[in-house]
Design goal:
Structural class: alpha+beta
Strand content: 25-35%
Radius of gyration: 29 Å
Number of strands: 33
Mean pLDDT: 81
Amino acid sequence: MQNLIDFGGAVSIDGRGRLNKPYVSSEIYDYYRFQEGMTPAEIAKLYPAITTQATHLDGTTFYEGTTALNYWGAYSDSKITEIGTDYWLSMPAAKATATETFPGTISKTSDVSFSQLGTPLDTTLATRDKDGITVTAAKDQSSIKETAYDALYPKDTTTSRGGSQVALTGLVKPADGYFALKLKTNGQAKLLISSNNKPNLVYQTIALPDTHNEWITIAYPTKGGQANLDFFAVISKQNTKVTFNAGCYTDATALPVFSDNAQDVAMFTGKTLTQKLTATNATKLSLIDAPKGLTLAADGTMTYHATTAGTYPVILQATNQQRTITKTFTITVEDNRTQAYNNTTKTLTSGVYTTASLTKLNEAADHVKALLKSGDDAAFQTALQAYADAIKQAELLNPTLKDGSLNYAAYTDLAQANLLDKTGAIDSKQTFSTSNLVDDDPASYGGDWMTPAVLDFGADYRVTITGASFLARTGFPNRTQGANLYGSNDGKTWTKLTTATTKLDNQMQNVPIAETQQKAAYRYIKIQVDEPGPATDPAWPGIASFADIHLFGTRSEVNQGAAGLTVPALLDEPEAPATTDNKPQTGTTTPTTDDKTTTSVDSRFDHGKATTTTTNKGHATGATKPTAQSDKNTTSAAAKSKRSTNTLPKTGNHKAALLTGVGMLVVVLMAAGFSLYRKYA
């Protein structure tokens, strides 16, 4: 019994991973209950996931996404009778008394009820009630303890606890669309939405307004999540309570749309920002949170006079009675242009960049520096935004995952993913998902492959592989069995790199690389199943699936130019703002410290920010000269090598040096009896 799909014990490999369907779990539950004579308590102890699904069935008429279905043969097909006539005929007569596995009430809408399909994870902060599930806010994710999960699955010592109070399953969300939540609150809070129960994998963050316990339906983008479930964490310093009633399907046409200028803004101290904000398809635009002194007039005009440098969040809300959205952006106030340049430069991630991206980065930095003492504020801010964009788009040569392996999905152009055709040639029309192969999620996978798969790192790059790890897709370890890695520089002639094949195993397994190949550099890496496991589905002979493939090693440039060896450095900051105009500022944009490869791209929403941890490996000092790149990439894996804020050393500390010099002068003058103390102090 190798196919481990429930934490209580092993289930037959013949399940073939199909236990994700609740009605299949119900059929298996019936087998244990009535064929094997096990009691409900015994089944729950050994197979808690099967019990949970079998006792939370939809009604005989139900929705899958927005499609209405029924239990009378909706899923029968030519390959497998998952439900239909055979499903009903398989029911033993004794099931008539097993009311715990009866279908639920008939669904009247496509809304996904938290009462039926929501799961409290931290019972100290999330409780069921007549309206759904009510969650008390935590101060941070580390304060959330998933007590309910621990009680339900005591034998599961491997699943990460992600710090979410509640989860909602049974979803059929679009990959790049919208979903909404019907909820009510008694205060403001931040809602962190994750697709995986692991720390620091938030793909959306939305601001929740105080609804004064009135229901609203608030929407968020689904890009970056997965289709079938979401985890929710409510975070606030206040004792905010949020009641979740239902998940609601929606589309773009139903949502309000903020104007494009509702985005991050930069300005200088002493200036006044005036900006007209609008929202189409909305009946009301309002302010949820803002820095002291910021006002929003009835016509949407936002006004703010900046007195102190800093970064200040602004949260807007737009509603049309049917749907509500919120948007968070920041106002960054700088004392002078050099400070603005330095703060942008600090968002650089430590590590070696590719020559192509770093060339663009230095060109953008030079443009900003050329405007430090000339030109108006608007021209400077435009150049600063271009510099920030170049930082976001800059690519590390070796972005890594948390285990130190190469994150070949960090950038869309880092590795092209294709399958071979039947002749063995690379087929550009057949692609697969690289992001699913580096996410440490056994439920996601790179695709179902009928031919070997190839990663092409491009003509300008080569990779050296020193190790590899493989993770089977949940329920399908036989489809991962017997795999090898191969390398090539022409895509035709292949050299085997591994010295052993993958085994029939649901756990992450390491496969050694031949010692003679650990210094060899290749453009192409091929994943090929040479010794396939037992076929369990006649309809898919020779099929291969992988949840994760981690490649340890390094990527190198075939021809690294001199422009790829330096990064911009920090500059000395002047005493006073170096600006040439006193005009009010009107909506100039500024760089943000958001992740470079943000999983969600929709300017209407407050996007999720994944957490990264980076270590600055020391940029060299010098006046305005670029510094040598660090020779070691230290990007954390939790965010898949996305950008984070770092502290770069300044090229000098002008202000501190000046104060020290003045102090010494005062002491000397006093000691000599001069009357110049008042003048220089």
